[in-house]
Specification:
The complex is a heterodimer. Chain A is an all-alpha fold. Chain A has a domain of 74 residues: Methane Monooxygenase Hydroxylase, Chain G, domain 1. The longest helix of chain A is centred in the N-terminal third of the chain and has 17 residues. Chain A starts with a helix and ends with a helix. Chain B folds into four domains: 172 residues, Sandwich (Jelly Rolls); 85 residues, Immunoglobulins (Immunoglobulin-like); 310 residues, Purple Acid Phosphatase, chain A, domain 2, CATH 3.60.21; 67 residues, no CATH class. The termini of chain B are far apart. The N terminus of chain B is likely disordered. In chain B, the strands form eight sheets. In chain B, strands 21-20-19-32-33-34-29 form a seven-stranded mixed β-sheet. The relative contact order of chain B is 0.08. Chain B is built from seven helices and 41 strands. In chain B, strand 19, helix 2 and strand 20 form a beta-alpha-beta unit.
Chain lengths: 273, 675
């Protein structure tokens, strides 16, 4: 039942609160439709909030905020206004004000993952990474199926703040929950940055065993081994990459990325001669 | 709830109505209500199962109407028969009569239980509520695992079970209620029972169809267990996959299948089939990945109007394909107007294409109307509940970790589906990182990509000005073209626009140059210049055809004058794509059955001899030509965008030729030698 309610709320919010720019032709048309509907509607608040979102997408922040204010005047208890306004202010780069609005919304909906995510971004933009850290964690925990990008964004913040170990922990959590290759690759980079070379190699070995084409993974492995000060093993890995590359069908050898990779392999083998 | 506006309340009411409809269909018959009279036992430990059996003599047990209780919470009513505290387990029995058939019918229990319970029909266990899961034996001193939500039995708890354990005539329903601890301070039991025939309200439909497995999904109006019966012989559907948990949203994965094989199937419950088991309900498993097999794809874009336009486009395809099986089916977004609700999907997808859904695997992408224009990168849109898409690389691609974008293999084709609506379109975002890795991992001959927002269009949308369209073009086409993409499909504009063979056009339409047009002809096989040819000796940037196929439900006109397009039509229709070995043929099939555009891409294996740069006049000497081979002489000033200047150069050990077409500029030349 809790899952259903979460889905219901997210669906309602999803329908109500689109985020960024879409084709503006669609947005303008919808603004017109909503404005027309308002003439006949007895409950204008809902339409105003929807229109505020459309104005936000159109980057017409003044009109968007005006619609929010109108709703707040009609119904001071409507906490959804704070979410809509928070998003508008975030887009407007008024991060402190955005955070304050989201605070008020989250008092009523403390598990709203998207609001938590935007508040995390607001904190981050304000340089308050400790608070952002908390909100990212809560946003991810509150989501039934958090998306890989959320972990990516969160970990990048930690990495930029010199918290590589914490970033790797976040990415690892994301790998476990999503299995996304984009996160796995990020984890390799983080492990190398932390000089935890065996960790990185272990991850690459996993990729290599699962992949139809192994040449890229052998090269990455060689690079990690070089950084780890293990040139003999690195050389062996580059040789394996060369063998895998040579075994590729001709059409794949000729792609731009494959050609670049081959050049890299040759250069690496030459370097380690 | 007071915070929800009328509009939100309507959405909420829609969901609740859906739930209500799914639990209480029109044909429901109430067998007994919550005040039904039960025999009960609260003085003995009944560890032998005999008390559950129909023949058990319960005449010595006291009786009373529900609710039977020892409870001080005034919110719980109607409280009719007091019980005595102090027992770990209480036993209840009642009789009921069925007059209708029990096959594919559901018994729905609406209960008040504090704390846990086990139910039996005619001596057979049918349900546990907050009790240790089977196979744990339930004895007198077995404790319930937890209390009801909120601590007391204040809310209805509803579950449905297949009526297979019941019979027409007299039946015995037995229940035992367990406490969470021996010193629990309350006990409540009551149950209302209703009977209804079960029906399928959605599907069956096929998802994630691979060479060894496929997912079958369907929806029923009442929660039941799930069973798929299948086999290669329609008369013998002896293979079974089942899930005993009760649900209205059924989803079963059939594993261990043989590749490229037809399986007939039915869906239903333990007591029998609800749908299928006929000649129209089958799936054809994919061939072993990488193998060559004639493959037919049907592609619809912006189809979800649910109106006669959509029907006409659908029927034109049904007539066109006839008995030729559709191996797979792509939806290019805006699959259900206007906001992508479950109800809209029901009308525009499940009712519209029911015949196709039961036998051809559908691979969709997200459009702006699936999200009601929202760009939030979340998976709470109904689309994600409706479809099951590969996130973990099992379908042949690399794990994306999300259903927003994914890849899969079919025969010798690698498909990539991107999310142009809600995912970050930045080149360093997760989707781009995943795409690069995925493309570096495939070994398939063909590469087809699809997403909603077209990189080139001058239809009802403009790719020169709209953000999503521009970003997909600028950020994703370089990745895909470098990996040798052959065909890119999208919708969004409600028209059919199809490009020439194109490469490297990433800016606005006015920047298109001849250098980016690798072949400006129609690409039709019947054309004098023949199909678009891609030499497989080179993978990258050999050209791709871009198609906007967004007119499967409506047409919206527009300038329709994008210079990259070979043809632009304001006509209703869908695309039919046939891939056979090294040849891909695509048609635009109109709603009236006419084919108003057709092109073919052919892949030809060649051995490319090293290019030579000619500085000595126009005379070219080639010494590595094997006798008896067919050769093609090509020229280029940049070592890319090779132009064929002479076909069928006679094979010999060497030759000297003169390029009559060139001007005074020096050029590179090369020879393609066909096997």
């Amino acid at each position: 039942m809790k899952l259903f309610l979460a889905f219901l709320i997210c669906s309602v919010f999803g329908l109500l609160f689109p985020k960024a720019s879409v084709a503006h032709g669609d947005v303008h048309q919808q603004i017109l439709v909503l404005t027309e509907k308002m003439q006949a509607s007895t409950n204008r608040a809902e339409l105003l909030l929807r229109r505020a979102e459309l104005y936000r997408m159109d980057e017409d922040y003044l009109s968007a905020l005006a619609d929010c204010s109108a709703v707040a005047r009609m119904d001071p208890t409507n906490s959804l206004v704070h979410f809509v306004r928070g998003r508008i202010l975030f887009d407007k780069k008024k991060f402190s004000a955005a955070k304050a609005e989201l605070d008020r919304f989250l008092e009523t909906y403390p598990q709203h993952s998207e609001a938590l995510l935007i508040r995390a971004r607001s904190w981050r933009s304000l340089g308050e990474t400790t608070e952002a850290d908390k909100d990212y964690t809560m946003a991810i925990n509150a989501a039934a199926a958090p998306e890989p990008d959320w972990y990516y964004e969160y970990a990048q913040m930690l990495q930029a703040g010199g918290q590589g170990t914490a970033a790797l922990a976040v990415v690892d959590n994301g790998c476990k929950r999503t299995g996304a290759v984009s996160l796995e690759l990020f984890a390799v980079d983080l492990a190398v940055e932390l000089k935890d070379f065996d960790n990185a190699l272990h991850r690459l070995d996993k990729f290599c065993s699962q992949s139809q084409r192994k040449e890229k993974w052998f090269v990455r492995r060689g690079e990690v081994l070089e950084k780890a000060g293990r040139p003999a093993e690195a050389c062996e890995s580059y040789k394996q990459a060369e063998q895998a590359w040579v075994a590729l069908p001709r059409q794949f050898q000729s792609s731009v990325s494959a050609q670049q990779l081959h050049t890299e392999i040759a250069a690496s083998l030459q370097r380690l001669k | 709830m007071h915070l929800l506006s009328l509009w939100q309340s309507r959405v909420l009411a829609g969901f609740l109505l859906l739930i209500l409809q799914s639990t209480l269909p029109a044909q429901t018959t109430v067998i007994f209500g919550i005040t039904n009279t039960w025999r009960y036992q609260q003085t003995s430990n009944l560890n032998s199962p005999s008390w559950q059996a129909p023949v058990f003599n319960d005449s010595s047990w006291p009786s009373g109407p529900g609710l039977l209780y020892s409870e001080t919470n005034a919110a719980i009513s109607p409280r009719n028969t007091p019980l005595t505290l102090g027992r770990t387990t209480y036993y209840f029995r009642t009789h009921f009569t069925l007059t209708n058939g029990v096959v594919n019918a559901v018994l729905t229990f609406s209960n008040r239980i504090d704390d846990g319970a086990v139910f039996y029909i005619n001596g057979n266990e049918v349900q546990r509520v907050r009790m240790p899961l089977a196979p744990t034996n339930i004895l007198y001193d077995t404790l319930a695992t937890t209390t009801p939500s909120g601590g007391d039995a204040t809310a209805w708890e509803v579950f449905g079970i297949s009526a297979t354990n019941a019979i027409i005539g007299d039946n015995v329903l037995a229940a035992e209620v367990h406490q969470t601890s021996s010193n629990s301070t309350d006990i409540v039991f009551g149950s209302a029972l209703s009977f209804a025939p079960l029906s399928v309200t959605r599907g069956p439909y096929l998802q994630c169809g691979l060479s060894t497995n496929v997912i079958v999904r369907w929806r029923t109006d009442l929660a039941t267990e799930s069973v798929v019966r299948f086999g290669t012989n329609l008369a013998d559907l002896s293979n079974t996959v089942s899930d005993p948990s009760t649900t209205t949203e059924h989803e079963l994965t059939l594993n261990g299948l043989s590749a490229d094989t037809i399986y007939f199937y039915s869906i239903g419950t333990a007591s029998g089939a609800l749908a299928g088991g006929d000649t129209n309900t089958f799936f054809l498993t994919a061939p072993v990945p990488g193998t060559v097999k004639p493959t037919r794809l049907w592609v619809v874009g912006d189809a979800g109007t649910g109106d006669t336009n959509q029907m006409n486009v659908r029927d034109a395809y049904y007539n066109f394909t006839g008995t030729r099986h559709t191996d797979l089916w792509l939806m290019l977004g805006d699959n259900a107007y206007d906001t992508g609700t479950d109800t809209e999907f029901q009308e525009a997808v499940f009712e519209m294409y029911s015949k196709m859904l039961s036998k051809s695997v559908l691979w969709p992408t997200l459009g702006n109307h699936e999200t009601a224009q929202a760009t939030n990168f979340v998976n709470t849109y109904p689309y994600f509940n409706i479809f099951t898409l590969p996130t973990n690389g099992v379908a042949g691609g690399i794990a994306s970790g999300t259903e927003h974008y994914y890849s899969f293999d079919y025969a010798n084709i690698h498909f990539v589906c991107l999310d142009s609506m809600t995912a970050s379109r930045a080149t360093n975002a997760a989707m781009a990182t995943w795409l690069r890795t995925d493309l570096d991992s495939t070994t398939n001959r063909w590469l087809i990509a699809f997403w909603h927002h077209p990189p080139y269009t001058k239809g009802s949308h403009n790719s020169d000005t709209e953000t999503e369209l521009k970003e997909m073009r600028q950020n994703y086409l370089p990745i895909l073209e470098a990996a040798g993409v052959d065909l890119i499909l999208s919708g969004h504009s409600h028209s059919y626009e199809r490009s020439v063979l194109l490469d490297g056009h990433y800016d606005v339409s006015t920047t298109l140059t001849n250098r980016m047009v690798l072949n400006a002809t129609s690409g039709a096989e019947t054309n004098a210049t023949g199909p678009y040819t891609k030499w497989t000796g080179e993978q990258s940037n050999q050209g791709a055809v871009y198609v906007v196929a967004g007119s499967s439900g409506k047409i919206s006109g527009g300038a329709l004058n994008h210079p990259a397009m070979f043809i632009s039509l304001n006509q209703l229709g869908s695309m039919v794509i046939d891939v056979d070995g090294d040849k891909l043929t695509a048609k635009f099939l109109r709603d009236n059955g006419n084919t108003n555009d057709q092109f073919t891409i052919v892949k030809r294996d060649v051995q490319i001899l090293s290019p030579q740069f000619v500085t000595n006049g126009f005379r070219l000497s080639v010494t590595n030509i094997a006798a008896g081979k067919t050769n093609l002489l090509q020229a280029s000033t940049t070592l890319s965008n090779w132009v064929s200047i002479s076909t069928n150069v006679v094979g010999s050990n060497s030759f000297t030729t003169f390029d009559a077409t060139t001007n005074a500029d020096a050029r590179f030349y090369r020879v393609l030698r066909f096997p």
